[in-house]
């Protein structure tokens, strides 16, 4: 019963915070529970991130598919300093995501803080949830900085 109460709370938080993503996700999961389809929750948990990332990737690649970005623009972007920074940023993000995955493997209960932190970011800072790996990666970086500073004190 506490799972349903938490989901209703998340629906309310999403509505108050004007976050349709949180409200919709909590509503769908509440419906899954209320119609006794809990057997699908592990599949949603396991494949939901992949499916979300797939659709995120679709939305990012649409300009290529629609022809709005041509080879000329691609070449110009990759030969400019913002383009090079984007390449470095993309490589750094995937590296940080890998560190986040390592951290989650070592300490899986961190997912609770990551989820609550993500909800706070969505509701209060109008953030966009892109997945627990980036949140875990940032946590791993913050952890390393904290250990470094604590060692200096």
From TrEMBL:
The chain crosses the membrane at residues 6-31, 51-69, 81-98, 110-128, 134-151. InterPro entries: UPF0756_TM. Keywords: Cell membrane, Membrane, Transmembrane, Transmembrane helix. It is a multi-pass membrane protein. Its main location: membrane. It is found in: Cell membrane. It comes from the Bacteria. Belongs to the UPF0756 family. This is UPF0756 membrane protein PACILC2_44900. It comes from Paenibacillus cisolokensis.
């Amino acid at each position: 019963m506490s799972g349903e109460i938490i989901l209703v709370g998340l629906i309310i938080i999403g509505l108050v915070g004007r976050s349709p993503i949180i409200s919709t996700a909590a509503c769908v999961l509440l419906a899954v529970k209320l119609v006794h389809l809990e057997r699908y929750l592990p599949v949603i948990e396991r494949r939901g991130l992949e499916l979300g990332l797939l659709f995120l990737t679709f939305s990012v690649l649409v300009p290529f598919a629609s022809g709005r970005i041509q080879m000329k623009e691609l070449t110009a972007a990759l030969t400019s300093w913002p383009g090079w920074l984007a390449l470095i940023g993309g490589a750094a993000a995937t590296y940080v995501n890998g560190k986040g995955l390592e951290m989650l493997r070592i300490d899986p209960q961190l997912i609770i803080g990551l989820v609550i932190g993500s909800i706070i970011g969505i509701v209060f800072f109008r953030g966009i949830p892109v997945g627990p790996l980036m949140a875990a990666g940032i946590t791993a970086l913050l952890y390393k900085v904290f250990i470094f500073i604590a060692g200096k004190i």
